[in-house]
Amino acid sequence: MSLWSGLSPFRPFLPVVAVLLWFNSACQNPKVDSLNYLQSVKNGQLTFADGSTEAIPHWGDTTWTIVFCVRHAEKAKDDPKDPQLTPEGEARAERLGRILAGATLDSVYASPYKRTQLTAEPVQRRGNTAPVVTYKPDKQDLWFPELLESSKGKKMLVVGHQNTIPQLLNLLTGKMDYDNIPDQDFGRMYLVATQGVGITVVKELRY
After folding, report:
1. Distance in angstroms (rounded) separating the CA atoms of residues 80 and 192
2. What DSSP character marks residue 44?
3. Strand, helix or coil at 39?
4. Whether the Cβ atoms of residue 85 and residue 55 lie closer than 8 Å to each other
5. Counting beta carbons within 10 angstroms of the beta carbon of residue 11, is it exposed (0 to 12), middle (13 to 18) or buried (19 or more)?
6. Helices (H) and strands (E) in the chain, counts
7. What pLDDT does 11 receive?
8. How many other C-beta atoms can be found within 10 angstroms of the C-beta atom of residue 50?
9. So what's the pLDDT on residue 3?
10. CB under 8 Å to 71, separation ≥6 — which residues?
11. How far is CA 91 from each of CA 5, 86, 157, rounded to the nearest angstrom?
12. Residue by residue, what is the 3-state secondary structure of 162-178?
C-alpha cells in the first residue's frame, strides 16, 4: 500500500497541514526572507537585497540624530568573560562595515569588550571615521542623553549587547517595548532617529 493510499482519509486536509508546517517554520526562523536584508546605507537611503530602497527618516535634519544600534556579532567560547568573535562573527562584522561604509558616520561607539570592539572596528575602518569610542553600557542611561545634547544632526553607530541595546531603545522611546535580543540572534539592526528621550522613531532591520 502506498503512502498516499494510507493518507486517503486525510487528503482534504493536507494543503492546510502544509501551510501550518510552513508557517511554524517561518516563525521559528526569522531569516526566511533574505530579500529584506539590508545591503547598504548611502545618501539617506536604505537599499535591500531585492533592490528596493527606503528613505531614512529625518536624514539631513540637523535637529535629529541618527543612530544605528547593533548587538555584537557571533561570539566564541574561548573566554567566558570576554570572548573573541567566531569566524562567522568576523564575517558579520565585515558585512556590517560594508553596509555602513557609505553612511558617512560621524562616530562609532562600543562597550569595552572584545566582541563589541571587534564588531565596531570594520565599520570604523571602512567608513574612515575617528577611532572607536568606548562607553560603559551600565552607565548608558546617563551617558547617552548627554551625548545627544552635543550630537544634533550627527550619525553614529552604537555596538552593545543583547540586553543593553533594547535598554537603550526603551530609554530613547520612553517605553518598554523592547525585550532582550534572543541569545542566538546576531542579525538585528535598529535604525533610530531621535531628538531626545520620548521623541524617537525606531525601525528594525536585518543584515
Report:
1. 31
2. T
3. strand
4. no
5. exposed
6. 6, 9
7. 55
8. 11
9. 42
10. 159, 160, 161, 162, 165, 181, 185, 186, 188
11. 49, 9, 18
12. CCHHHHHHHHHHCCCCC
Question: Distance between CA atoms of 102 and 99, rounded to whole angstroms?
Answer: 7
Closest CA to 108 of 127, 97, 124: 124
Q: How far apart are CA 179 and CA 29, in angstroms?
A: 18
Residue 17 confidence (pLDDT): 45
Q: Is 143 helix (H, G, I), strand (E, B) or coil?
A: helix
Walk along the chain (207 residues) and give the pLDDT tens digit of each residue: 444 445 455 455 545 444 444 444 444 444 446 779 999 999 999 999 999 999 999 999 999 999 999 999 999 999 999 999 999 999 999 999 999 999 999 999 999 999 999 999 999 999 999 999 999 999 999 999 999 999 999 999 999 999 999 999 999 999 999 999 999 999 999 999 999 999 999 999 999
Whole-angstrom Cα distance, residue 184 to residue 99? 21
Look up residue 75 and give its amino acid. K
| Domains in the chain with CATH codes | 57-206 (3.40.50.1240)
C-alpha to C-alpha distance for 96 and 77, rounded to whole angstroms: 22
Question: At residue 82, what are phi and psi to the nearest 5 degrees?
Answer: -145, 70
Residue 106 cell numbers, joined = 560621524
Q: Taking every pair of C-alpha atoms in the chain, what is the biggest distance, in angstroms? A: 76
